[in-house]
Amino acid sequence: MQEETVQPPESPSQPKSLEQQLAEAQAALEQQRDAMMRALAEADNARKRAQSEAQAARKYALERFAEDLLPVADALAAALESKDTSGIDLTLRQLKTALEKAHVSEITPAPGERFDPHRHQAMTAVESGQEPNTVVAVMQKGYALYDRVLRPALVTVAKSAADPISDKDLN
Amino acid sequence: MAKIIGIDLGTTNSCVAIMEGGKPKVIENSEGARTTPSVVAYSDDGEILVGASAKRQAVTNAKSTLYAVKRLIGRRFEEKEVQKDISLMPFRIVKADNGDAWVEVRGKKVAPQQVSAEVLRKMKKTAEDYLGEEVTEAVITVPAYFNDSQRQATKDAGRIAGLDVKRIINEPTAAALAFGLDKQLKKDTKIAVYDLGGGTFDISIIEMADVEGEKQFEVLSTNGDTFLGGEDFDQRLIDHIVTEFKKEQGVDLSKDVLALQRLKDAAEKAKIELSSSQQTEINLPYVTADASGPKHLAMKLTRAKFESLVDDLIEKTIEPCRIAMKDAGVSTKDIHDVILVGGQTRMPKVVDKVRELFDREPRKDVNPDEAVAVGAGIQAGVLKGDVKDVLLLDVTPLSLGIETLGGVMTKLIQKNTTIPTKAQQVFSTADDNQTAVTIHVLQGERDMAGGNKSLGQFNLTDIPTAPRGMPQIEVTFDIDANGILHVSAKDKATGKENKIKIQASSGLTEEEIKRMVKDAEAHAEEDRKTLELVNARNGAEALVHSVRKSLKEHGDKLDAGEKEKIETAAKEVEAVLKSENKTEIETKAQALAQAAQKLGEKIYAEQQAKAQPQGEQPQGEQPKKDENVVDAEFTEVKDKKTG
Fold first, then answer.
1. CB distance A165–B418 less than 8 Å?
2. What pTM did the predictor assign?
């Protein structure tokens, strides 16, 4: 009763009461919390979408390449059926073009080139007049997809005289 | 903030994982592989090679190519394991001044910690390349039988690699974490971890106890064989093929290094293939040559044959399991879970043996090559606090949508969408001068509305009269953080809106959800047929409608005979609309479309500019149409890029 008489009537120009300020702050906080939760959920949903997209992309990534391989299979079958291998050269060229288009490149180090374990695999070390640790011969070509080695080139490497090689194999 | 990484530092292979968006992720190394061979080579020019490249130059650099160093780390030179290795390894194992087992490379003594540090450095780099920031902290796993000095040595290896090792955890414990066994409600459980990796076999019996709400793991016993693994399985297969080939062709492939290398690769592939199929074929054309000319290798191999080749290897894992159980003082019925780790456990016969021994189905739902690293990654996430954060976000267990023309359920929010979330779609009317629509909110996975749970419905009225498909009614679904669903429908022309609020409590129990998902799978075929029928019906009806409309507007441009033909075709479509035969409806609709072509030609010829896109659209369900357009564009772009 007393308080009521002491307090002057509120006018619009007066500062807001503490309760009002609290209510506003709480409302703002709630709004921000909701916005944050929505942002988090959206990020999570985006992640899920990205995942399913990546899955689909992986699934059909081979489409183009596979298409380019079909004529190669046809030609090989035709060669077998006709017992005439005159078209084999052309078929191999077809296959090479398909590989090139798919960004698959050959790894064929020239003799004397330095042995590079990132792209070559040493099969044996042989005595030769060459500088040690250089490629003597390629036993099987390697292949790379863009910058990634699909299969290293299998090579023989020149033995270094100072470091006799144990014949124990790692594999 | 920088992440803590989890590393499985293995004897033959290593693997690194992190927590990302609340999920563990295994990171590919720069060569694109998810695991890296634990091989380190010191080349003559001072370069240090780690992983596949180190393996590839082993032949030319055997003495300085180090592998399986994990067998030496933290051990004294005198220990019998070390002594055994000395005769087996092509590199020199020496006694360090402090009595530890070290290796000698290019005339210098090197501690196994330093060698392992090179592998760890590569794993660290792999994570950094992926994350794009420096990594300084890690969780590393070690075998359960590692003693204090081996653990300390592993920690030191981390330090040398520039990693602050936050925790060393046991490999079986990491595997249990990867399988989520710590999330189980059961109180004190015993777990058997059967780990058959590339070169080693470990069996561990661990116990998980709930201590004041925190899960603690204790290793009760371990056993194993440090010289038994997947590589032995490969070797058996190679030996078998070499023997068979010699019998058939008289040529010894093991004398031809190139042939042997090709055979090794083919044998590993065949082994993997036989885990999922009963038979495989090994084809190696021009594998070798002798005086008579080139030789080809073509051999069929059955799963049964392969199993017979490695039977004793699998059998060798059984005794250690028995001993481990005995040491732990448990019998098979005390074991709650059996988990499979290591690539070789993909072999069905191994799974069978384990099932037989423990008399329960082993868990194999986590990639066995990666389980340990994934567990280390999860532990790293827990230390960082990443793992807890994620629990805040909930998902909708079932799809939500509304009923559309023909009793079809059109989904606005797909199941497993993380909430809070909002979705919007524009719908239209199905009849001319329709002034009200009913928004019937549904939950479930069935394609047809009737098979799903009805959550509620409301009407939106006072839609101004207009031809079907013209009004635009925007339906919004909004699930807030508390799981409450707000559905509103708004007529875009008048701005009139109506809405409904559906409490989370009116949702479903776990049981109901499972039942509904199963139900949808069971009825998928039936629903698909119904859906196709409804679509055919809706399409045919819309066609009749639009043809009649055009006929009314432009009929005067046709002669009576043509008009008659179209009208007859339209009547025929109407006659079969109620039919349950989809093909019949489609055939009649097609006939009508063909008959109406004349009309279309006339209209286009004379009124090209006035073409109305809306008229072509059957239900005015615009978002569907938009989707198709986007799809087509996507294919276009892709074609241009790669072609």
1. no
2. 0.72
